[in-house]
Amino acid sequence: MSDKTFDHKECGSCPIRHRAVCARCEADELEELDSIKYYRSYEAGQPIIWSGDRMDFVASVVTGVASLSQAMEDGRTQMVGLLLPSDFLGRPGREFAPYDVVAVSNLTLCCFRRKPFEQMMLHTPHVSQRLLEMTLDELDAAREWMLILGRKTAREKIASLLAIIARREASLELTTAGDGMSFELPLTREAMADYLGLTLETVSRQISALKREGVITLEGKRKVIIPDYDRLQIETGDDTDGGLI
Amino acid sequence: MSDKTFDHKECGSCPIRHRAVCARCEADELEELDSIKYYRSYEAGQPIIWSGDRMDFVASVVTGVASLSQAMEDGRTQMVGLLLPSDFLGRPGREFAPYDVVAVSNLTLCCFRRKPFEQMMLHTPHVSQRLLEMTLDELDAAREWMLILGRKTAREKIASLLAIIARREASLELTTAGDGMSFELPLTREAMADYLGLTLETVSRQISALKREGVITLEGKRKVIIPDYDRLQIETGDDTDGGLI
DNA sequence: CCGGTGCCTTGACCCAGATCAAGAATTGCG
DNA sequence: CGCAATTCTTGATCTGGGTCAAGGCACCGG
User: Fold this and answer.
1) CA A52 → C1' D23, Å?
2) Tens digit of each residue's pLDDT (9 = 90 or more) over A15-37
3) Å between B190 CA and D4 C1'?
4) One-letter-per-residue 3-state SS of A6-50
5) In a 3-state reduction of DSSP, which class is residue B198?
6) Residues A54 and A95: beta-carbon distance below 8 Å
7) Quick one: pLDDT at residue B1?
8) Quick check: A159 CB within 7 A of strand D?
């Protein structure tokens, strides 16, 4: 498996340097961040934080994928956030975690001790400006997701998720989503179900249906090929091409 | 109808002064904001902005309620934000509106011209810090909402919405939600359906059911009385009392 | 090589909520 | 006052996706 890792452990060679919360920092600011940071790694499937836990760090995802989810006591679970490389975990000023956080794939976090980070935000507008921007983007993503959860059919939900992953994958490669592109699904069927408010059986059935009808091609259970991106886009139910952004 | 209005039009007597984006501002900063602000009013039901419109202001809700919603071209609609007094509308740095905004009740906005507001944010950390805080709160609310949309039954959805409104109503009165409290529903059945990802018929049926079983009492179609707040809380499906915050 | 353990697929059946349809209650207006 | 126009309620019926159940497939450790 092609697990990208990050071994150098210094900002100069950091793959998310230009997109993370530190994107706008100058050399001296980076140095200050450097003094309060440390790295942690998790294996796929490992829990990172349970809801209610004390949290005395915030972090950037360097490599891998993590999920935020909320559980009801009878076991129903809804994923409420999907953290990809450069995304930010935690909230300045908050002591206890409100969600369960799980490493969906192998994961590396760049952690900052919370207190000094909060301190730094007070006198470093470059950090808080960037964090505001990222939070506003996340809010937009959450709202797109709400439309998916509230109004789309199971088939549209699956198509939407595939399109979202395709777009993010493409943006990492610095291209745009196009015909013939392929990617590895970072989520199990169950995690997709938790993301979309479905059962894993329905996820499986809808993926089979999209495959049967040639909207997607599968190689194994996880590798997806998109022969015709516009066709997939139509299946999402969204108006032709990107209304947003 | 008890439409609270705001006639004085100056920050000194502003009802949201201590909670809005300007909450942390000093006198001189307020003065600067004052020079770029103006008020606008809308009647219940009026559209404020259509998705795709150019938007050259941002604003705070002073009185009333507004909704953000996303529509699919076949008419399916999902509300993705509900703006109550002190909530912020718009995004610095964004030129075109991504959602439809509608005045749900009579509404007064305190608008700031966008360019000067953006300019001010660069040198006024009190504004951007407060905006970050508010955006993070909105993100939390959106995530609670995602659990509602993705995993709750129709009955739980209605109970959750009533509990949310009850809590916000109570916090405006500076008390906590308790037995016997009452409030006017600010939403039509259709708006509630758009909020919860249901049809208006299902909303109506579930409200009737909750009334029949004594969880709530209705006075007319809009005024709700909560005889037993804990009972309502149980009907939401959330674990006993507030897990969050 | 074999049994175990995750993860995924597929089938049969059922039910919560959507859809279609018909009024009732309230408001406003000529 | 009567007659729209809204907004809401209720009933009858239908269906998408949930639930329950039975395997299939790939990988791992012994």
Assistant:
1) 40
2) 999 999 999 999 999 999 999 99
3) 21
4) CCCCCHHHCCCCCCCCCCCCCHHHHHHHHCCEEEEEECCCCEEEC
5) coil
6) yes
7) 37
8) no
